[in-house]
Amino acid sequence: MPLASIVVPSRGGAGRLPRLFESLRQQTEQDVEMIVVIDGDTDDSESAVRRLAEEAPVRSIVFPENRGRAAALNAGFFDAKGDVLIRADDDLELEPDFVEHHVRLHDEAPRGVIAMCRDVFPRTPYATAYGVEADVAIRSAAFDTPPERTWEWWSGNVSSTRDDFHAVGGYDESFRAYGWEDVEWGYRLHRLGREILIAPGFTTLHHGPVTSAAERLERAFASGAAYAKFIEKHGPVLPQAEHPTSLWNTLVAVTARAATPRTVRTAGHLIDRHVERLPHAVGHKVVALGIQASSRAGRRRSGR
């Protein structure tokens, strides 16, 4: 029985998995298994896993069709044999002490562990105008989060004990679109009474961040709808956002009223074409406006 299990949900990941596998081979703690759950094999990812299995403790679970990330996570975690269960996305590059670090934190206390990643951006107009700065700000905000709300950051580089996973239960597979299936599970771990630690010292690299405004706005819209689903399930457990009268909040509200999946996509493509021609501060604000308005529109339309 391995000390730890890493569960990797993957779809179309054949080109991303080799970097992850190479970083697995470099781990200081080798008493570990990796389970890659292929959520519908669109690019022969299974062969990539099979080739590595000759050299490293990696195996796959293959869905014949796409079932969603929550279903993939459940399949992997319920099949995992380790005492510590680690979730890692297929576009991560693990630092050599990644497994050792997660395991050590669970040895210290009963808790859930969140390890923040650092995005590795290609040079795109979106990354220059917004993405790089937002990545720094997000990590800073996470470490400033009070202990009773750290569950809100449960995401793609996290761990729990095997006993706690089974006590909480699986991920909610009704969260099929983008967003909040992770946070919803983290909230249930929090309700179990576990400390959820946002751990310092991790240097995990994320090689697959959003690279365009179009994709970022679409994700914000979908995440807004998933947030509304979370509130419908658990009630108003998050502080309700206040929108005092200001020019900015008026702009967000007006933009959100006009936002649909089609207009969000169109607006994102327009931003991508023109944002690098704007002064940096203006371009940053334009992207932020699109994100906030798209998220608010997603919440409103989900409620309808």
- What is CATH's topology name of the largest domain? Spore Coat Polysaccharide Biosynthesis Protein SpsA, Chain A
**Uncertain regions spanning at least 5 consecutive residues:** none
CATH superfamily of the largest domain: Spore Coat Polysaccharide Biosynthesis Protein SpsA, Chain A
Number of distinct helices: 11
- Indicate the structural class: alpha/beta
Helix content: 40-55%
CATH class of the largest domain: Alpha Beta
Query: Any guess at the CATH architecture of the largest domain?
Result: Alpha-Beta Complex
The rounded distance between the terminal residues' Cα atoms is: 48 Å
Average pLDDT score: 95
Q: Structurally, how many domains make up the residues?
A: 2
Kindly state the number of beta strands: 10
Strand order of the largest sheet: 3-2-1-4-8-6-9
Query: What is the overall shape?
Result: globular
Strand content: 5-15%
- What profile does the largest beta sheet have? 7 strands, mixed
Order of helices and strands: EHEHEHEEHEEHEHHEEHHHH
The Rg value, from CA coordinates, equals 20 Å
Structural features, described:
This protein has 304 residues and is of the alpha/beta class. The protein has two domains: 4-206, Spore Coat Polysaccharide Biosynthesis Protein SpsA, Chain A (Alpha-Beta Complex); 213-303, no CATH class. Helices cover 48% and strands 15% of the residues. The protein has eleven helices and ten strands. The chain has helices at residues 17-25, 45-52, 69-79, 98-108, 125-143, 162-168, 181-191, 213-234, 247-257, 261-274, 280-303, and strands at 4-10, 32-39, 58-63, 84-88, 92-93, 111-114, 118-119, 157-161, 195-198, 205-206. A seven-stranded mixed β-sheet has the order 3-2-1-4-8-6-9, sandwiched between helices. It has a three-stranded mixed β-sheet with strand order 5-10-7. Helix 9 (247-257) crosses helix 11 (280-303). The chain is globular, with a radius of gyration of 20 Å.
